[in-house]
Design brief:
About 0% of the residues lie in helices and about 40% in strands. The protein has about 325 residues and is an all-beta fold. It is globular and about 50 Å long. The chain starts with about 30 loop residues before the first strand and ends in an 8-residue tail after the last strand.
């Protein structure tokens, strides 16, 4: 394939929309994947763009150039135009000395034009250039190696470090550019017993997502921990959204995180069932200002989503 050298943009999206009036609810669109396709759904629930995929999608992004970055299989991610033309593709392959399975659960388009990819199985972070060549490799520390569970969400920080969620280990690790672990947060059960299952009744420490906030704290989507927490560099919890704290919403496998400029947080609520929203926006004083519940287009396995049409800078 001849790869187009487009002007690549970061996966941190900045979109401008008109200011909201009074208590008017946000008119967001949503890019998400579930039920065998990737799709963009507008505020009316209409599908504006879609493409079939057999991949288990745990990450995706609408880039500033309008293209979409998403997986097409366990080891492959592509950048695709709205006309459904692939302009960039990367396929992960076993590193030297490793013959096992590989899965990609996280990736990020960087300001440099490179694409960061977390490779489970290979237990590494790589940065890939516009020609799909690996130009940087960072080894990951894994306590319980498993090609499906080594990593979930991973992001390169403004500092140049990497923040990586290790689902199988139940830990978040921050790595410097040499691969040294400079910060670790260990998930706990929050005072509840471990329980099997993916839905609201399941409970564990299989962490999914984390973003570094401007104040230096880390906001964590705890996966089957059924909650969202903000922790300081010392590991102290300073804000928490518990499983049953919001009226009419029960948290199950918490995945997507987007932090808005006004401090609101958009949360992904996977495996929670049709009685609960798949996504919602909540203020820091825990008022729900927007919900997304679309079981016609997506289903109970909506793990990766990006809410579009948000004012100002967004951390995701």
């Amino acid at each position: 394939m001849s790869l187009s050298r487009l002007a690549f943009a970061t996966a941190l999206v900045i979109v401008s929309v008109p200011a909201l009036r009074g208590e008017e609810k946000p008119a967001y669109s949503v890019l998400a994947a579930d039920k065998g396709h990737v799709a963009i759904v507008n505020a009316k629930g209409e599908i504006e763009w879609e493409l079939p995929t057999k991949a288990e999608v745990h990450d995706l992004a609408l880039l500033a150039n309008g293209n979409i970055l998403f997986p097409t299989g366990p080891t492959t991610i592509v950048e695709m135009t709205r006309e459904k033309r692939v302009v960039w593709q990367y396929e992960a392959k076993p590193k030297a000395g490793y013959t096992g399975r590989i899965e990609i659960h996280a990736f990020q388009r960087l300001d440099s034009g490179r694409t960061m990819v977390a490779e489970s199985g290979n237990a590494r972070i790589v940065e890939v250039d516009v020609d799909a060549k690996v130009v940087y490799e960072l080894p990951l520390t894994i306590d319980k190696p498993n090609p499906h569970r080594d990593t979930r969400m991973a992001r390169k920080l403004e500092s140049g470090n990497y923040l990586v969620c290790h689902e199988g280990d139940g830990k978040i690790r921050e790595y410097d550019s040499t691969g040294k672990v400079v910060w670790t947060y260990v998930l706990d059960l929050g005072g509840r017993p471990r329980a099997p299952g993916h839905g609201p009744d399941g409970h564990g420490t299989e962490v999914f997502g984390a973003v570094r906030l401007s104040n230096g704290n880390t906001l964590i989507a705890t996966g089957n921990g059924n909650r969202v927490i903000e922790v300081t560099p010392e590991g102290k919890t300073v804000w928490e959204l518990k499983q049953d704290e919001l009226p009419g919403i029960k948290l199950a496998w918490v995945t997507t995180l987007q932090v808005l400029e006004n401090g609101n947080v958009i949360v992904g609520n996977c495996h929670a069932g049709p009685d609960n929203p798949q996504l919602f926006e909540v203020t820091r004083d825990k008022k729900v200002v927007w919900t997304f519940n679309n079981f016609k287009t997506f289903g109970n396995g909506l793990a990766a989503a990006q809410v579009l049409g948000i004012r100002g800078k967004v951390i995701r």
